[in-house]
Each structure stands twice: as structure tokens, then as C-alpha cells.
């Protein structure tokens, strides 16, 4: 139905040896990956599936925050993730 752009925070977790991804505007939306590329791919997937489901079920979700309002932990990176929710629906 729409194209969305949300910022994610990606940081390396030494203990788990993974890149952790969190969406500060979306509660309970997070993922990880063994490589940075995999973490970004997983972030696109979890964001797209979450927003498509929320649209389909008429569940409201927070709009993206401006970058100046996002607290970025030391050592983390702010990465913009763009998804089209139509890409996360069956064509049936």
C-alpha cells in the first residue's frame, strides 16, 4: 500500500558476534545478522512484514522520527531502511 522509510540503529554485539538492529520508533521490531549486509537485509524483511501486517489489520504504528530526535548509542550506526509494503504481501 505504501513506501515507508524508518531509521534503524545497528550495532555490533561482541558477546553474540552479531550485528543487532533496532527500530527506535517501533516497539518490539528488531532483528540481527552475522554480517552487516545480512543485518540490513533482515531489517528490511522485519520492517516490511511488520508494517504490511499492521496495515492489513488496521493496527496504527508510530511515524518515523526526525534524525535529531533519535538517540544513537556510542559505536552504533543510524541506517535508513526503505520498504514497500506491497512487496510483503502474497499475490494470491
Briefly, what is this?
The chain has 92 residues and is of the alpha+beta class. The chain is 23% helix and 30% strand. It has one domain (3-88): 2-Layer Sandwich (Double Stranded RNA Binding Domain), CATH 3.30.160.
Any overview of this molecule?
A four-stranded antiparallel β-sheet has the order 3-2-1-4, with helices on one face. The protein has one helix at residues 36-56; strands spanning 3-13, 18-22, 30-33, 77-84. The protein is globular, with a radius of gyration of 13 Å. The protein is 23% helix and 30% strand. It is of the alpha+beta class and 92 residues long. It contains one helix and four strands, in the order E-E-E-H-E. The protein has one domain: 2-Layer Sandwich (Double Stranded RNA Binding Domain). The two termini are 16 Å apart.
Main attributes?
92 residues, single chain, alpha+beta, 23% helix, 1 helix, Double Stranded RNA Binding Domain
Major sheet summary line: 4 strands, antiparallel
Percent of residues in helices comes to 10-25%
The tally of domains stands at: 1
- What is the overall shape? globular
Number of helices: 1
- End-to-end separation in angstroms reads 16 Å
- Spatial ordering of strands, largest sheet: 3-2-1-4
Q: What topology does this entry show?
A:
Layout: E1 3-13, E2 18-22, E3 30-33, H1 36-56, E4 77-84
Antiparallel strand pairs: 1-2, 1-4, 2-3
